[in-house]
Amino acid sequence: MKSVQCFTLSFIIILFRSDMVFGETWAVLVAGSTAWADYRHQADVAHAYQLLVKQGVKSDKIITMMYDNIANNPKNPYPGKIYNTPDGNDVYAGLKVDYTGKNVSVATFLNVLKGNTIGNAGKGNEKVLNSTIEDNVFIYFVDHGGFNILGLPVGILTKKDLQNALDYMYTNRMYKKVLFYLDACNAGSMFEGLESEKRIFAVTASNSTEDSYSTYCYNKLKLPCLGDEFSVAWMQDSEVHNILTESVGRHVDNVARNTANSHVSQYGDQSTRSLAVVDFQGGIGNKKFRNVITDVKTGRAWKNISINSRQVPLYMIKKKLTNPIEIAVKIKQLSLKRAKLDDLLSQIVHNAINQRNLAQLILNRKPSRISKTATYCHDVVIKAFDVDCASFDSNPYAFSLSHVFANLCEVLQNPEPILQQFRVQCLNVTKTVSVTE
After folding, report:
1. Is 41 a catalytic residue?
2. Active-site residue 263, yes or no?
3. Does the pTM of the predicted model rise above 0.85?
């Protein structure tokens, strides 16, 4: 009997020692869009902030970036409030946003990841990651995306940019593990080839060649789509399960099952699947006692009618108008604007490639990944197109065409012939016109 008592006492001492070392949880939350029609992106991030704080992540360890023009938008029938689910609470109340407006830029985001306070001097509250090798980092990014690119109000984030920032974090021992959730079209393309030794586990709403989906679009609140399918799925799973006992692997598998219209994809360090969700979405206080708290909640399937994210503008036209003739006129106008952008790219490709069959292949092929040389070319070309031809922030439809530049770069392996076409073909293009609304 004494030996049993001693064993039990020793076990309890090991489990509850107050001097056990646990790293902090840091989080970076980013909504990259600005339009009222993209309400869901800021709603997703606001909800994520509330969830993390409720689960014990310290607010001073959460860095939030969003344009912050939705809650008090003149179109909002609920001034000062944002909803992520039809029957949910206001997720804007108590939200702390660190970077707003034009400070939500590519440069700001990369400085946040690199812990570069000097680079963010004078921007927002200058908050950046100050994590160490003992800390886990959770990154959640939601916005429009295309092949190897993501949107932000200022600038375009390329795969090359993101890879360089994550490499910097790894080299400078800024994390123990990173869990990266990315909700965007073609999201998987940003992480194809991610090495497992970097200790980064990336989970994306879609693979490299497909679109993601928006949800809660048919709501009684008279609001645009309230959330994104993948985002709502991961947050709901965290809310209905005990994150102290649920593994990241089980969590991700549940999210994949409840993301019905796209393929949730996983990249990088698969060993992260065995860790508890609390290691990335919970506070240090929770981590100490996770082994003695049992899961008393049960998951539930999440179901709702979802819409392809690239087609939300069409849905918004139908929702806003009631006259069939007006609806038809608006849809035709939108289609014509998109067709002009399609024609622009067709001209660029056919002038850069004087082989008709090859040009058609470049316009239509959807790659899953491209070579390193082509990735460099794509980085240069995409950023030039954003400045010289059509701003991606004003023209989200352009994201769906980013694969064309990837194919063109794979063939030419040199950005200069493409840039030359921009100088000619984009000379008289109206750069600020929206082709989505």
Report:
1. no
2. no
3. yes
Indicate which residue of 41, 47, 144, 251 is catalytic. Answer: 144
* CB neighbourhood size of 340 (10 A): 14
Cβ 56 vs Cβ 22: under 8 Å: no
Round to whole Å and give the CA distance between 157 and 394: 15
Which CATH entry fits the domain spanning 25-292: 3.40.50.300, 3.40.50.1460, 3.20.20.70, 3.90.25.10? 3.40.50.1460
CA distances to 190, 401, 405, 421 from 373, in Å = 16, 20, 13, 20
Tokens at 23, concatenated: 């790293």
Looking at the DSSP bridge assignments, the partners of residue 142 are 31, 183
Residue 431: pLDDT band (50, 70, 90) is: low
Fold of 321-425: Topoisomerase I; Chain A, domain 4 (1.10.132)
Catalytic residue among 41, 47, 185, 409: 185
Query: Within 13 Å of residue 158, how many CA atoms lie on the same side as its CB?
Result: 21
